[in-house]
Amino acid sequence: MAPMRERDRRGPLRVALLTPCYWPEVRRGTERFARELADGLIARGHGPSLITSHRGLPSRAVEGRLTVSRLPRFPHRLFPGRRYESYVTHVPLSYLALRRGDYDIAHALYPADGLAAVRWRSRTGRPAVLSYMGVPEAEWLSARRWRRKILEQAAAGSDAVVALSHHAGAVFRQTLGCEPHVIPPGVDLEAFRPTGPRAHTPTIICPAAPEEPRKNVGLLIEAFDLVRRRYADAQLILSRPRNPRALHGIPLNARGVRWLELNDRAALAQAYADAWVGVLPSTGEAFGLVLVEALACGTPVVGYAHAAIPEIIDRPEIGRLFFRLEPDALAAALFESLELASTSQTVTECRRRAEEFSTDRCTERYLMLYEELLGRGATRGAGAEQRRHPSPV
């Protein structure tokens, strides 16, 4: 392994962030996390770059002070019907992009990209970090060929593995024997903030992807029908799907339901601020960023008491948990949270809770981790040692 280059600790960090997809093609949580972490690093004078892929020719552009390199993405569904893991075909190009750059650290946000980062680490001696954006449950890891093996290799070869919540960290320990750092993703408190009076009529918002069965949007629509029996003018705001045909069993024309385009961050923030309640009825959440975004806008929230959601909704002043995946249980939590929305103190309490998950705090924790890894150097086996004795961040 080549020795790690000495870095002037007073100079800016050159961080390569790697993710298989990015805006405007995909705007899920990982893509937003990448952008907000990059913005936090830029605001502190550092020099992050983003390496991603798309369906097109290679391109390189500066987007809001962030250099984004888009590499060609070859068809990633290898051998249709064989259920191979997604996003492996762009790994060689991601590795070449890392080698051609001049980076202090490679930070992968997806396991396949973690393979490129680990390979780069073995050649350069510089640290590699893997942030896992989900929950590595055994059933999920076995659902596609190579998925578990890719994650195991990326985690074992990285100097640090990061989980988004204590729940996700516990599953890492149980499933992979890996002890990750826990760093929750951040919310931009300037972009997401209270803007004035709420909507005149009781309004509930759920920006989760309705085509994903585990988000339980169909259950929410059933519960909302119960809400409408008490509040006849209530509205439910849902995220418009790209492909309505993917909404198996979910009615598009339910009473009081509005399907809005919520990909734009400003539009989403305004929708949160207008709403009386934000809700996420899903299972298996590694964190639940949409709940924190709603809280930042002063809006109380409802979530299913499963996975990491109780780590966010941890006090009655900011919302309610529900404990059964049944319409009446969800409706009861919505009723109580709609009552919370009527007090001005709720805005203060929600905002205070969101401040505990700010982008600034998330960025500072990652900077602490980067500096720790760079300060001690990257040596073979350091990743395994770190996971046995992780530093508190």
Description:
By secondary structure, the chain is an alpha/beta fold. It folds into 2 domains: 15-186 and 359-384, Glycogen Phosphorylase B (Rossmann fold); 203-355, Glycogen Phosphorylase B (Rossmann fold, 3-Layer(aba) Sandwich). It has helices at 29-43, 91-100, 111-124, 138-141, 147-157, 166-176, 217-230, 265-274, 289-296, 309-312, 327-340, 344-355, 359-376, 382-388; strands at 15-18, 49-54, 59-63, 66-72, 105-108, 128-131, 160-163, 181-182, 203-206, 235-239, 257-260, 277-280, 301-304, 319-322. The model is unreliable at 1-8 and 377-393 (pLDDT under 50).
Q: How do you describe this structure in short?
A:
The protein is 39% helix and 16% strand. With 393 residues, the protein is of the alpha/beta class.
In CATH, the topology of the largest domain is named: Rossmann fold
Oligomeric state of the chains present here: single chain
Discrete helix count: 14
Runs with pLDDT <50, length 5+?
1-8, 377-393
Largest beta sheet: what is the strand line-up? 3-4-2-1-5-6-7-8
How much helicity do the residues have? Answer: 25-40%
Largest sheet: 8 strands, mixed
Classified by CATH, the class of the largest domain is Alpha Beta
* Name of the CATH architecture of the largest domain: 3-Layer(aba) Sandwich
Order of helices and strands: EHEEEHEHEHHEHEEHEEHEHEHEHHHH
